[in-house]
Design brief:
Layout (H helix, E strand, L loop, with lengths): L1 E3 H6 L5 E7 L3 E4 L2 E5 L3 E9 L5 E14 L6 E16 L5 E4 L2 E6 L5 E3 L1 H10 L44 H6 L1
Parallel strand pairs: 7-9
Antiparallel strand pairs: 1-10, 2-5, 3-4, 4-6, 5-6, 6-7, 8-9
Length: 176
């Protein structure tokens, strides 16, 4: 999903439409790989100005699958976002903002600007860093791993001292 600078320059002052769909398998977010269920749909337009500034208006949508941090159930997060982006040539800072406008630097000698990394950054802003399937999620049983939301009257047999149900914990259990 690239903006061709030569095309934008040849249409200086005119809107160049953007209408693309991209298949993403996953998005990296806080050491997790989150599944992207729907194609990323991007519409909008870009205008190249006489000052070599590129104004981009984007609407994009997709669905990302997050996982509850307590019970690990899948949570479908619908992303539907509008962003105004401005690319300025050779500015000192790589990124800045003015109100709702995100401003990024681009190299004036480059032939293209890849929009996908910027769009993925905006998608990540809509994701919860600590997603929960519901506010009162009870999580998983620390002994057997059962989902406590599904088993209201769940009870595990208590481990006796010196016994470990998880074989990886046997050496630690011997110390007790």
């Amino acid at each position: 999903m690239e903006l061709q600078l030569s095309e934008l320059k040849s249409n200086e002052g005119q809107l160049t439409p953007i209408d693309e769909s991209v298949s993403l398998e996953s998005i990296s977010f806080h050491d997790d790989e989150l599944e992207v269920r729907e194609e990323l749909r991007v519409t909008g337009g870009a205008i190249f100005t006489s000052e070599e500034v590129i104004n981009v208006s984007l609407d994009f949508s997709t669905t990302v699958i997050e996982h509850c941090r307590r019970c690990l159930e899948s949570i479908e997060t619908k992303i539907d976002r509008h962003e105004e982006i401005e690319f300025r040539p050779d500015m000192e800072a790589e990124v800045t903002s003015e109100g709702n406008l995100s401003i990024y630097r681009y190299e004036s000698g480059s032939g293209t600007i890849d929009l996908l990394p910027y769009i993925i950054r905006f998608i990540k802003l809509d994701l919860e860093p600590y997603p929960l399937c519901r506010e009162d999620c009870k999580g998983l049983c620390p002994k057997c791993g059962a989902n406590l939301n599904e088993e209201e009257d769940h009870s595990c047999e208590e481990e006796s001292e010196g016994e470990a149900k998880d074989p990886r914990m046997e050496k630690l259990a011997e110390l007790l």
